[in-house]
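Structural biology now treats backbone shape like a language. To illustrate, our science desk offers a sequence and the tokens encoding its fold:
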Amino acid sequence: MNTVTITIDGRSISVDPELSILEAARSNGIDIPTLCFHEALAERGACWLCIVELKGPARFIPACNTKVAEGMVVETDNATLQGMRRQSLERIVAQHCGDCLGPCEVSCPAGCNIPGFVSAIASGRDRDAMSIIMQAIPLPGILGRVCPAPCEDACRRHGVDEPVSICALKRYAADSDASSQEPFMPARAESTGKKIAIVGAGPAGLTAAYYLLAAGHGVTIIDAGRQPGGMMRYGIPRFRLPESVIEADIRPIRAMGAEFRMSTRFGPDTGWDSLSRDHDALLLAIGASSAARMGIPGEDHPLVVSGIDFLRAASNAGSGNTGSTVIVVGGGNTAVDAARTALRLGADEVTIMYRRGREEMPANPQEIAEAEAEGVQLRLLCAPTQICEAPGGVLVRAVAMALGKPGPDGRRSPVPVEGSGFGLHADLVIAATGQAVDAPDEALPDLGIGRNGTIGTIAGSMRTELPGVFACGDCVSGPDLAITAVAHGRRAAFEIDRFLHGLPAQNPQATFNSTYGERDLAPAPFYERSMLAGRVPVPEIDAAVASRSFDEAVTGYGTSDAVQEALRCMQCRCRAVDDCRLRELAGRFGITASREAPITEEFAIEGTKEVRFEREKCVDCGICVRTLEAAGGNPGFPALAESCPTGAISA
């Protein structure tokens, strides 16, 4: 066979003279980016991403439709070419519009593939749903009950009627799996012989343990509590999170071989000096389990308890004495949980006092509604100023508040209203105004603890300044959501695994994500695809009965309800997101910010369940047209979808 000799990137190679520069480069392991090239098609497009530099008079040429020639000298990668390719890619990206990922999964701190597991439930594939969830959230029964669901706030279904009940569906998948004959167990890699000590058996520590065990490492979990779970076990009441659910989520971690050293305090009972003898890395996953102070006179009165201590005491089979009248100070989940628990312990009147309005309460709105239904009263826009001794209890002196100007975080700061003071009698005051981290100052004096008790990590890698010591969860972020702690734990496991394999830190990189825009501001035809269908109510026991019982208040979906609710999902996630060439190239060239391209008047999403065409995702690469021509007009939908580089045609 005749060949020609060319030079590519300084390498002399002999190739078939009928090949293009692109084909010659690929056959010799040299990658040249392209969007419109398809190896099965003779005609080429014109994306100009495959531009190369030819030494000679015709300097910059497309590699896909330029044939090789004897003596040709080609350079495929330099700063000039990178700039030209990026410019071409930005032009192409500007024409492309659609959701790469569903807004729900973008808003999920753990990055769970929500459309994927919801679709699996809709088609009766509960096992697949569980497998998808566990890729990002290894505590699905717990998070399906306690997560405040930022994903539901972002759900595009808002533009039709009501958001999908994502958390209830996650809970359904977890409960269905837990009750099956063979609950889900992840595949575990071959043992590496490495071992990690994890301090903290809360959501961050348990999550890290799950992924480290799956990677083949050994894990020892150390915690001061009698049982694992952290604040999920001792800070969330059983009527919201039954103990059996916590155990079901921990079961795979136990089954994979985790060693639990409970009732063991890091520092007083054990330290890194001793643990390092048989452990290769240390992860600090210490939660925010200390109560913040209110900062008012009288808060040390014996009839004032912290929300954390109150819930911890009540977690032991619902024990505790509240008296008749209880005032809970605060507006978060701990405050609402404490108020609902007080009712169940026999209080006749429970009031939540919060310095902002209802819309500003950080607690889960659903839980606030459940508390009100059970009889908890909200006293908003007021704050305590002093706790005083009073006959038979205490007097809470308070003042009305008004919302002032927005602060740096965008929230309007409450300011006292002059002359608005008043007093309320209480048998018990529960202070639930925040939580703090118990930093391991004495155990690791060289760690570098911040003023707020948090531990600094290097460039978000979960690695601390101490070699082999990592940190994640509340002790890094400060008090935060359990789902954020789960995200931290997964990230920490990834970094520890790299460390144990001798690899450097890999800081998370933002990926390109095209979007139609805000959740309910996508083009009208996008929403018109869906028929009106309100949320399927999540079954719960009667509020009057619930308020006097520690049985789980919300009983959850059965199979038929779960399928019906899952079918409401609009499946915003692009079907081709995992192998989209445009998205891969955008990431490669650093085009990572979310893009919102203009919507044309011809916007349409057409097709059937089997195939879908989204005109706004088309970048006119011409591959589909050339595929049709090459196949005589009938290549079949799967072939068209497979050849489309942007997900405009998907099967």
The chain has a mean pLDDT of 90. The longest strand covers residues 393-406. The chain has five domains: 4-95, 103-184+511-566, 195-288+437-500, 290-435, 578-650.
